[in-house]
Amino acid sequence: MSPVTPGQPDSPGSDPGPYPGFRDTVRTLIRDGMPSYATVPFGLVRQEQLTDQIAAQATPTQTEFYVRFESVPLGKNVTVQAVPGTIAAYRDGGTVPDTITNGRVTGDIDPNGNFTLSTAPVSSLLVTYGWQIFADGDIDQMLDEARSWLFDWATLDVVPDGMNPALTKYAAHLAAASIARAMRLPDVTAGEARETLSAVAKGYEQDAKDFLAGAQQSRKDYWSSADQPLQPQASVTPLSYPAYQPYR
């Protein structure tokens, strides 16, 4: 399985400035995990049973577990990462989750999906967690490349507000193209599986083309409008976007 080359996931709130709002918009466009650290609960759209990892003994003592990304779209074809701070573990049919904040998850989930509970579950373990294909730094790099493509402004926060749609669409174009390339790399031997994988890759390739066309049109519309400033009127604010619908 060949991954989209990831960076390390950043901690929530680790990157001040204009990036988070733009980053969330790009994630929403490409359907990459959950679009915002502010989304609560973060990963309840993805549930995964880990009951088979519980030690088969009368008095369980195992507290270290790992998620398999089984419920994550594309998880078997493109490497995804777990997002620290998002693990919620439901032990033995309970409805109140074990989390970092209540102290019952003592080892936070890492990018590979490993985590540690304070006490061992006895009969069942269900988890939810946040996931993403791209680390925050990866998308920030795409946004910077989009900024240069637009007009080579020195920093993201001086991009005029009217260019925001072109900025995020171009970054989404880069992201979708990267996913498509990764989807074509695995050596799939089964004919039917190859066809399915090819169809998914083609879908992302088409998305990449559509995002590029949209970015080009948005840029053209901006420059063709009368009296458009080269600098923003005020500080860049996060883009608004429709309610997130998880990719299925």
What does the model show?
The chain has helices at 19-30, 136-150, 164-184, 191-224; strands at 47-49, 64-66, 81-82, 88-91, 105-107, 114-117, 125-128, 131-132. A hairpin with a 6-residue loop joins strand 5 (105-107) and strand 6. The chain folds into 2 domains: 19-32 and 134-224, no CATH class; 36-132, no CATH class. The protein is built from 4 helices and 8 strands; from the N terminus they run αββββββββααα. The protein is 33% helix and 10% strand. Mean pLDDT is 78; it is low at 1-15, 35-44 and 233-248.
How far apart, in Å, are the first and last alpha carbons?
20 Å
What would you call the shape?
elongated
Give me the strand/helix succession: HEEEEEEEEHHH
Q: Multimeric state of these chains? A: single chain
Please tally the β strands and state the result: 8
Main beta-sheet annotation: 3 strands, antiparallel
Could you say how many structural domains there are in total? Answer: 2
Derived structural class: alpha+beta
Low-confidence stretches: 1-15, 35-44, 233-248
Q: How many helix segments?
A: 4
Strand order of the largest sheet: 1-7-4
Overall pLDDT: 78
* Share of β-strand residues: 5-15%
Helix content: 25-40%
The radius of gyration over CA amounts to 20 Å
